[in-house]
Amino acid sequence: MEIISTTVMAKDEKMVTLTIALSEGEQIKKGDELELAQMDGGTITRKVLCVNQWCYKDIEDVCTCTYCTEEDGNLPVIGPCRAELTFYDVDTHALDSEENRATQEFLRLFQETTCITPYRELQMGSQSIYDNIQEGYTVPERVILYLQTKRLFTMALGVYAHPFKKDVDLLGPYMYTDGIYYWDRDTWKYVVKYGLKLPEDFIVHVMSEEGEAFLKSMSGKDSWQEQLEELKQQKNTLCLLPDDAGDSSLEAF
């Protein structure tokens, strides 16, 4: 059994629902005592209070079974499938889940990488972008190409004012990374169009052999647009973000 994600009930924070994936032949039913893996390597044992199943065996459709009640009997769900299991008294932050592992990995990357656009106007730091503008500023073409790579880092669901066009709102910020630095996706546009200065150590890194190797490795990689497209194709998922993730051309920016 793999724990995918967790949801805390609004009325009772001790009541939680876990979305889990069952492998071939695994069975779970209401009333079972299950061992739930913890991030620290330990386990806790909790009783399944309710089961709600999505069956992915039928490729053409997703079948949502009724909630487990006394009238429905107590038939088990059988893998491979996904199901929602309701438990009481579970610390969701301590569970060894796909969600928590991804969060832990992101926090590690966040602590180990350096932001080259730490500007409050971009919702990414305390410095001001206006203090780092220089008329006629240019960088080597490789630096611009590097900033246009699309290795996903993170995004923030929000809207903020364009720092140089107060009547224009931007979505995000959406961020990309090379594993050493991370930046706002519009950084290259700020450099080309508004003369945003970049940290010298970042430029040196980009122009190094390591920077060149990363740039060559990124052809055809993921983007936020592709990520949203994939999300919108998932069944039972509502995503209201625009298909282009609010990304605009240099001319419009």
Outline:
This protein has about 250 residues and is an alpha+beta fold. It is about 20% helix and about 30% strand.
The total number of structural domains is 2
H-E order? EEEEEEEEEHEHEEEEEHHHH
Oligomer: single chain
Largest sheet: 5 strands, antiparallel
Beta-strand fraction estimate: 25-35%
Mean of residue pLDDT? 84
Shape: elongated
Count of helix runs: 6
Q: How do the strands of the widest beta sheet line up side by side? A: 1-2-9-6-7
| Gyration radius, in Å | 23 Å
The proportion of residues forming helix, as a percent range, comes to: 10-25%
Contiguous low-pLDDT stretches (5 residues minimum) are 55-71
Number of strands: 15
Q: Structural class per helix/strand content?
A: alpha+beta
Between the first and last Cα atoms, what is the distance in angstroms? 47 Å
Describe the structure in your own words:
The chain is an alpha+beta fold and 253 residues long. It has 2 domains: 2-90, Elongation Factor Tu (Ef-tu), domain 3; 113-233, no CATH class. It is 22% helix and 28% strand. The strands form 5 sheets. A 5-stranded antiparallel sheet has the order 1-2-9-6-7. The protein has a 4-stranded mixed sheet with strand order 10-15-14-11, with helices on one face. A two-stranded antiparallel sheet has the order 3-8. A hairpin with a 7-residue loop joins β6 (50-55) and β7 (63-64). α2 (141-147) packs antiparallel against α3. It is elongated and about 70 Å long. The protein starts with a strand and ends in a 20-residue tail after the last helix.
Give the tags:
253 residues, 6 helices, four-stranded mixed beta sheet, five-stranded antiparallel beta sheet, single chain, Elongation Factor Tu (Ef-tu), domain 3, alpha+beta, elongated, 2 domains
